[in-house]
Amino acid sequence: MYKAPRVLGWAHTKFGRLQDHTLQTLVETVSLEAISHAKVDPSEIDEVVISHFNQGMDAQGFPSSLPIEAVPALRFKPATRVENACAGGSAAVHMAARSIDAGDARCVLVIGVEKMTSSAPDIVRQSLVSASHVATQARSQDSSFAGLFAEMTRAYFERFGEQSSALARIAAKNHKFGSKNPLAHIQKDLGFEFCNSISEHNPMVAAPLKRTDCSLVSDGAAALVIARSDSARADGFDVRLHARAQINDRLPFADRDMTQLEGCKRAWRKVLTSAGITLDDLDFIETHDCFTIAELMQYEAMGLAEPGRGFEVLEDGMTDLGGRLPVNVSGGLKSKGHPIGATGVSMHVVAAAQLAGEFAGETLPNAEHAGIFNMGGAGVANYCSILARVS
Prior knowledge:
This protein has about 400 residues and is α/β, with parallel strands linked by helices. It has helices at about 25-40, 65-70, 90-100, 120-130, 135, 145-160, 165-180, 190-195, 260-275, 290-300, 310-315, 330-335, 340-355; strands spanning about 5-10, 45-50, 80, 105-115, 205, 210, 220-225, 240-250, 285, 370-375, 380-390.
């Protein structure tokens, strides 16, 4: 019988424009705090996995050994940087779990980090669009990831009908949740009317996507300590990485039906089968709302609604507080922020904290199962995790 690795501890900086932090200080901060929270001696860490996208946004392009500067006991331990676009954080978590499963490590420190806001906007835009199929989708100097997701949105609207109000409901929901999260980049409840209207403060970015439909350029870091199943904390809480799945799809839009997220659908099917549960067993989900259209399409991919009917999930309040399956109670990428390499680790941290009753934002008492979906590119690298609290 498979014995799932335990999540022993975690750390999470505030996300936002962190001018007083460098990439190194972000890494050092979460390394020390996660090890302390896990109540392990630094010498017990056997391996480090660090997620960092970068692509020219920071001059420091080789971050794997930076944790040693804060934690000398990590010297001479294996440390590896991983990258899978915006899903790099989950790639790091899954790599750590595989190392534990293989018996190569008993205890692994996982870090996700990104420093974005010190770069010029054009550098950030070029960095992000490199996660597309550049030869066919980023030939123009003005190409952007917002433009790519706007193309997806237009295709979805053409097939299923104009649904900008559904996107605004997602933005309003996630900003409402983010207003309660002290670690979120934007801690303001913007409301549906603001998110649904074009204005000076909510302009059209790439039609039909407004600013409130787009995630934030953020700095930040998060970290987890994951250990073998027989490891235990003195205070007894037990959160497990119960199941995980990864599905990669083709990169060019031309090779896929971009009105659905087939890789996301397959990843959810695989992880739920592996966990031996259904969506009905989940208490909440953290999903990858890099753009509001992504969350809408993910509702359909995970099976909450039929294709083109994701708006019904919002109309009946299913994914809001008090609904059948709250989604992005942390505020999601839309409000919490999206420091690329940190995002997947952040999702696992906030889910683990929620299950352990330690989340600082909107809480879900007695939650036992959390689902996580983290996406690299436009539905290309698809990672699902199930975290479980063991009574």
